[in-house]
């Protein structure tokens, strides 16, 4: 697939957190024991969350080798250490535990992992989560606010009813000062600090005002104290209740992840192109993050047109839209769920700033994809020795 993401310098951790809700992933894909699941790596959270469903195989794929390096580090920590070490290096408990955990881990890491991550942790003492380009930008918003507005944002976490929460927001925050600060910080000019401007080439909307409207909708409909993404967005990784963390970072799932790691394969390449390879044709479910956000509508339609019908297994594709509404309601690659069902998925998704969620279905996808969709893909496997 021709995407603006392929034109970026892929030499940094662009995402240290997966913002697509894993509950939506599980509800949309209904992963079963016979499935081969393809997941865009990003920060690796939903790769691990998909693995927890117990499919036959999970393949993680990303154009950015640094994102795959991040997942390999997490897998090594899961395989060899107790959950407290992973939690500490993620940054859930602040900088001091990061330093202690890195001192414990560094000497045991394989040479290539240590060579990459030692300078990284030296430069990012607060841990992995605050170090992503997007996450550092997003969590930088709160300190730009006056102290009284910071305090009022934190008060939103105290409410036990949506009505009281909504009324407080309307009376104390939803005014010109907070609104202007939010819109300016997350509008196009500043948004490029978190994501490269090229990634918004096809976006028909400006970020700030759109995201503010989605924030207001969230506050009017759901308790934000129970929303992991809201809390991380404004307050960062510290102080989050264990029960709100993505499943892959909860202590209770650490042992199961360790058992399931041999089913995971990590691949460097482009997701749509991978589906046209021999191993890619065994994929039955795919979570594609928001990769179509970076493609033109014409390119998206061309990709959908490449979904060919044959007598083989079904393929279900899940993806999120941010500022574009990429969808393909008819044809060989049709919507897998009725519009109302997809709307419910989008409404229940925990991350408030996405526009919607889409699920496509086809029979044996990309079996005869045009050659121009193909791209080199290199495979690297995680073995029992990690």
Automatic annotation (TrEMBL):
Q: Which InterPro entries match?
A: DUF3419 (IPR021829)
Q: Which domain of life is it from?
A: Bacteria
List the PANTHER family.
BTA1P (PTHR47473), METHYLTRANSFERASE DOMAIN-CONTAINING PROTEIN (PTHR47473:SF1)
This one is known as S-adenosylmethionine-diacylglycerol 3-amino-3-carboxypropyl transferase
Q: Which organism is it from?
A: Hymenobacter antarcticus
Q: What is the lineage of its organism?
A: Bacteria, Pseudomonadati, Bacteroidota, Cytophagia, Cytophagales
């Amino acid at each position: 697939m021709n995407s603006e993401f392929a034109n970026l310098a892929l030499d940094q951790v662009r995402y240290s957190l997966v913002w697509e809700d894993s509950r939506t992933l599980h509800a949309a894909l209904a992963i079963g024991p016979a499935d081969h699941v393809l997941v865009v790596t990003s920060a690796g959270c939903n790769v691990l969350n998909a693995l927890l469903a117990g499919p036959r195989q999970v393949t993680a794929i990303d154009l950015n080798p640094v994102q795959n390096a991040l997942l390999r580090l997490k897998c090594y920590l899961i395989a060899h250490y107790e959950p407290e070490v992973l939690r500490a290096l993620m940054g859930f408990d602040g900088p001091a535990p990061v330093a202690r955990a890195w001192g414990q881990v560094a000497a045991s890491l394989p040479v290539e992992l240590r060579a990459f991550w030692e300078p990284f942790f030296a430069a990012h003492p607060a841990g992995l989560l605050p170090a992503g380009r997007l996450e550092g930008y997003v969590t930088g918003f709160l300190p730009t606010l006056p102290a009284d507005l910071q305090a009022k944002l934190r008060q939103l976490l105290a409410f036990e009813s949506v009505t009281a929460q909504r009324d407080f927001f309307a009376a104390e925050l939803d005014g010109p000062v907070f609104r202007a600060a939010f819109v300016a910080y997350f509008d196009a000019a500043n948004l490029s600090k978190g994501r490269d401007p090229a990634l918004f080439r096809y976006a028909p909307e400006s970020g700030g005002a759109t995201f503010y409207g989605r924030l207001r909708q969230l506050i009017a409909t759901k308790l934000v104290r129970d929303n992991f993404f809201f809390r991380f967005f404004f307050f960062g990784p510290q102080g989050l209740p264990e029960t709100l963390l993505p499943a892959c970072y909860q202590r209770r799932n650490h042992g199961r992840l360790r058992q399931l790691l041999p089913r995971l394969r990590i691949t460097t390449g482009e997701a749509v192109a991978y589906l046209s390879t021999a191993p890619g044709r065994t994929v039955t479910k795919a979570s594609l993050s928001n990769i179509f956000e970076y493609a033109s509508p014409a390119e998206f339609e061309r990709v959908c047109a490449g979904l060919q019908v044959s007598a083989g297994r079904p393929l279900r594709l899940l993806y999120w839209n941010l500022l574009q509404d990429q969808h393909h309601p008819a044809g060989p690659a049709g919507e897998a769920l009725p519009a109302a069902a997809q709307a419910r998925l989008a409404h229940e998704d925990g991350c408030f700033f996405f526009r919607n969620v889409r699920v496509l279905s086809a029979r044996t996808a990309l079996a005869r994809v045009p050659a121009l969709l193909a791209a080199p893909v290199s495979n690297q496997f995680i073995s029992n020795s990690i």
